[in-house]
Automatic annotation (TrEMBL):
It comes from Franzmannia pantelleriensis. This is VOC domain-containing protein. Pfam families: Glyoxalase (PF00903). Residues 4-126 form the VOC domain. SUPFAM superfamilies: Glyoxalase/Bleomycin resistance protein/Dihydroxybiphenyl dioxygenase (SSF54593). InterPro entries: Glyas_Bleomycin-R_OHBP_Dase, Glyas_Fos-R_dOase_dom, VOC_core.
């Protein structure tokens, strides 16, 4: 197996609302796709949005449960100011701010927001390990 993630698919409760959040609110570039799914181009991978019930059915598992899903998604940026800007953009788009951006124990600066379905995103700046776009060098 190659060390990469090609796509992350989120099972969402309201596809249209989630598309608005990611496309208009966060500004992710949307790819053309069938009406029952939405794909967004990320640097080196894709984000997919699919109805939660349909995704559970496709996987063959029950669509139940709530709370902490056992994972978070992370978006690393180049500065503390960039963390604040992304957190503000997410809040303006309708995200719930879960943990305000702040200095963290590992020496960086980070905060968390939840998208319309409660998926947790960390926005972080790590001064010791900044990983920019693939062509950032």
């Amino acid at each position: 197996m190659q060390p990469r993630i090609s796509m992350i698919t989120l099972g969402v409760s309201d596809l249209a609302a989630s598309v608005r959040f990611y496309e208009q609110g966060l500004g992710l570039p949307r790819r053309e796709s069938p009406p029952e799914v939405a794909f967004f181009t990320l640097d080196g991978s894709w984000l997919g949005l699919y109805g939660r019930e349909a995704l559970a059915e496709d996987v063959g598992v029950p669509d139940q449960g709530a709370g902490f899903p056992g994972f978070t998604l992370a978006h690393n940026v180049e500065s503390e100011a960039a963390v604040d800007a992304v957190m503000a953009q997410a809040a303006a788009a309708g995200a719930t701010l879960v943990k305000p951006a702040q200095k963290v124990f590992w020496g960086g600066y980070a905060g968390y927001f939840a998208d319309p379905d409660g998926y947790l995103w960390e926005v972080a700046h790590n001064p010791l390990f900044w990983v920019g776009p693939p062509d950032a060098g």
